[in-house]
Amino acid sequence: MESIGEPSALPLTRLSTLKLLLQRLEGKTANSNPRYRLMTTLATPVYDRRNFSNITEYILVNDAVWVERIKTVRTANILGVAGTDVPVKDFQKLIPAYKLGVNGYSFITTNNGYVLFHPDYRPIYQDILKPNFNAVDMSEVELVDTDDEPRNNDTVLMQMRREMIEKRDGEMNMRVRVHIDSMRRASIRQNRYFYKGIKETPFSLAIVQPEGYGAVPISELFKKKNWKVHPDWIYCQYMYDTPDHALLTPEAEVFHFMERSQRPAWKWRSRYGAQSSKDSSKGGIYSKRQNKDDYFCDKDLFQSLVFDAIATQPFDEKGLIKYSKSDGLGILKMFGVSIIFVATRSGLLKWHDEVTLAEREDGVYHPYGEGYENRHFSESNNGAIDEIWYKRAVEQNSVEPDSFVYSLPFDAGMKNDSLVTASHAIFVDKEGHKAPAAVVGLQFKHSLFVETFFNITHTCMAGMKCNSTCASEELECYVLDNNGFIIISEKRENSGKFFGEVDGTIMDSLVHYEIYQKIRIYDYQSVCFDKTEKKSSASLLLTPLKTIKLAASWAVGRLSWLVLQTQLSQFLSESWVGAISQLAEEVREEVDDFVEATDPNQDFPPDPKYSDPPVIEVGNPNIEAARINKTRVRPCDREVDLYALQQEKLYDSEKQQNKPLKGRLASCSQSTFGNQCGRSFTAHRIPHSNLILVVVDTLCPCDSRKMSIEPTEVYYNETERCDRLSQPLYRQRPTECISYHPEEEEIKMCGTCSKSNFSLFGLLLPLYVILRSILSS
């Protein structure tokens, strides 16, 4: 917002405005905001606070003379309605995510039970706004852990929903199902909910904390370049965007305020603290005049960031992990470790690139190659507690505190340079309560990981005799993660796939033996595409007049399209607009003319990111580029079965040792001797990890069925549809409804809308027209 009375404090220069427009043409902004910015509208009526109005009357005197008289009467006038749109993100900024911790979250519901924001709120599907994006109910995002049918109203959830609609204060425990990683992984959590109504609004706020951890307060460092902060969190920020405050990155902004905080007379200023207190003596809401240098800070978050920087300072030192490069068995070199990182609860990320540019065979610095989706780890994983590997590492701590979580991209089988991410959560303990403080991890080459695994499993251990190994043709070995995805397989193309798609029979047996738990997830925010049915042309045989009608319609359509293509409108009016693609040379000439027309004394800093405007390189203008591809979707429900590993089934806690599973599929297939054969398999827990080893016998072939984790539509019969429509969810109307005021009787100047009567003619006329058209046909 621009300050009034300070013309020098312009928010953007003319050239910056041009760049901003070019960014919007690309569908992006400087902060890479999404295409849609969801907002909620606040409105209030504006009344004329004057209770009396002056009216002019003309009075007839002596049957010939009219006298003008001003009369004061009692009135009550409404001037209009004032409103504003508030971005939903502004609500989320008031609830700092770092205070909620990993896997903790917040959400707001309306008086109708709809969510204003929620971690599982997904209003957009492939750049398309869903039809019911503004009517997602709380019961559709909080999935209770139950085996009931879809959309079965759980008593505990419905009770909490009703209390939130009625803006009551309360807390509740609930066991819910959670899905992450694009609905490919699922887990079950015991959450604790705290909710409270927001005064003078129809909203209620809920704070959610997972049980078992959390709810414990913990409380010259930034000159290196191996650190980043959470891009969406506000540590310190200026009130107004001016050219002097145009800091390019969140890291530059943090470093800027880090230096300012060390200057004399530094003050912590809160955006919603003392600055917003009323000063009745001056008649305004601010005690002092604001200027372009006003700023605000989140003191707790900023100080937590400094604390984490000090705590992770040894990570900056060289030689943190010592190994001999000449030693071929060095741990980093053996697995091809490319990066080591640490992320903290304050949003801080630090890393070490263990493989330099000179040591890479391909001469490329980034281990992910080129392209937006193959950026450096620090560019694509700077979300700290919001990253999937961070959340999974914290969840794994409750299963095995000393373990690492290994993950692999789902498309690893299609690439040669995939990396395995291993992460481990660090907890702090205070009086029996623990809270996650950070996550450490590393990334290494998947190919070397597979090679090392088979080098170990292709031979027998020293002093032991074994008839078969993973090198044997009669055995096939897999390493699966805790959600059933393949980390290691003898066939490289299977890496990253869901094991049920490769061998659904064995996966189904692992579920039968309760090694994996099946978790059914319902997606109540999904959309479906209806197939267009092909129509028969038999109706054309009914009458030849229909053929003539279609021919006339075709001729009119072709004629209209011909008029548009020839652009005859330019001969009728000189002011016209054409939706065509502009040549690159023409755009550059316009930009050059604009720069030459600006003030030569104005200093514009170079910006290599936007040195050339985004243009389309084409030979000739093409109007086809202006066409809009319309896609129609409909809201629907989908369901999918996901799986979670039950590691306690493979471990004997009393004997403190592994308890492998040995299974056999009886009567699997006909053997060469005409008898039925059985297919054996075993499952072993891999200590200190989220992995298991599955060894399958391949001598007895089985008809392996496929298990898919693609969501499928839930079809309801007519009875179920009617039952759900006849039992609507609880809603609440606005609490205040003022329909009468005692002083209304004193007001004589009123409108006559209340005297509107039923019009019989207006009802019979449409019926007459409809009946006449039916009879004439």
Automatic annotation (TrEMBL):
InterPro entries associated with the record: Ca_channel_alpha-2/delta, VDCC_a2/dsu
Entry protein name: Voltage-dependent calcium channel alpha-2/delta subunit conserved region domain-containing protein
GO cellular component, one term: voltage-gated calcium channel complex
Pfam family, one: VGCC_alpha2
Domain Voltage-dependent calcium channel alpha-2/delta subunit conserved region, residue spans: 289-632, 674-747
GO molecular function, one term: voltage-gated calcium channel activity
